[in-house]
Amino acid sequence: MLIAPEHKLYISPQSILIIQLGDIGDVIWSIPTFRALKASFPEALLSVVTRKPYGDFLLDDPSISKVFQISDIWQQVKLMLHIRRERFDLLFDLRADDRGTVVTFISGAKMKCALHYPGRFWRDKAFTHLLQEAPPRERFYGAAEQSLRIVRGFGIKEITYMPQIIVVEETRKKAVELLAAHGVAPGSFWVSISPFSRWPYKEWGMDKWREVALFVWHQYRMPAIIVGSKEEQSRAEKLIAGATSPMINLTGRTNLRELAALLKMSKLHMGVDSAPPHVAAAVGTRNLTVYGPTDWRDWVLPAPRNHVVSTDMSCSPCYQKGCDGRGISRCLDNLSADKVIDALQTMEDSIVV
Question: CA nearest 306: which of 323, 319, 291, 321?
């Protein structure tokens, strides 16, 4: 095991394995790292390990040869045996969790690389090369940088900071059929909204989303399509039941690839700090995300198509799970619909084009 501020790759890899066992946003914002490695070793076969089903976003990416997705315990055992049979030359673990360490240990890769975390000697033993970072002079921002900084320490140069999810024609057609089944004609304009999060302290009020959707309908004559998980279907129905403008509930009616296709067709995506805004950004759709206790700079790449509305309360971002740990964030409660509508009006040229 070698621990150093930088390393040289002493092999010319023919096969590379990247382990990214984080959430959807983590997988999406690791795509620039996948691109960087493929650009450095264009002849190498690039494989990725993710949690199931998050790897679905990568299935149509021509730069990725294989996607291994971990789910239940028995499937994990079979997957790890499969990975070992692949006999990878080079491995990068982009996180520091136990499963990634186990996959690394079992993989048998010739060169196993990751970021060094002091005090985790048991983890260190699974790797051949660990990157020891110098204390940052200032806090770095940007989700892509979380993984790019690891491969950069091994001489890999980034070619982009912006992820791209590939949407193939077959998936696009399925999304068009789904829209048609819900009365949305091909070629018509509409906006998408993801109002829910796995964490309630990140959510904005339903009445405010209704107000924003009503503004979009009156101003641009575009209905709102609600997207999200199957678990959010009943809440989406409640949101729509109180609406005075057209809303369509597509929560839980797409897989992840179809969600990407759907958001690629959306004229504008709006949402809270959850997975769909990352997907929208990665398919090139203009997006607006409402942030409260979390810091948008960790996740939103400054670019003309990426917009943020956040509170001006001095305590935000606090990274707390609601004020006083109660699951409710005053910074979001106090954020008015007018502030989001004002932001939409500054984006008007791009919405109506």
Answer: 291
The span from the CA of 40 to the CA of 323, in Å, is: 46
Q: Which stretches within 24-126 are classed as H helix?
A: 24-28, 31-40, 73-86, 98-107, 121-124
Classify domain 2-152 by CATH number. Answer: 3.40.50.2000
Strands in 268-272's sheet, in edge-to-edge order, are 247-249, 224-226, 191-194, 268-272, 287-291, 306-310
For domain 170-352, which architecture applies? 3-Layer(aba) Sandwich (3.40)
Nearest one of 296, 309, 301 to 284, comparing CA atoms = 301
DSSP assignment letter at 190: -
Question: Has residue 244 got a pLDDT over 70?
Answer: yes
Region of 349 (left: φ > 0; alpha: ψ -120 to 50; beta: rest) is alpha
Residues 6+ apart with CB under 8 A from 137: none
Q: Give the pLDDT confidence of 287-309 residue by residue, as tens digits.
A: 999 999 999 999 998 888 999 99
C-alpha span between 234 and 239 (Å, rounded): 9
φ/ψ bin of 119: left (φ > 0), alpha (ψ from -120 to 50), beta (otherwise): left
Same fold, 2-152 and 170-352: yes
pTM above 0.90, yes or no: yes
- Where do the domains of the chain lie? 2-152, 170-352
**192 three-state secondary structure:** strand
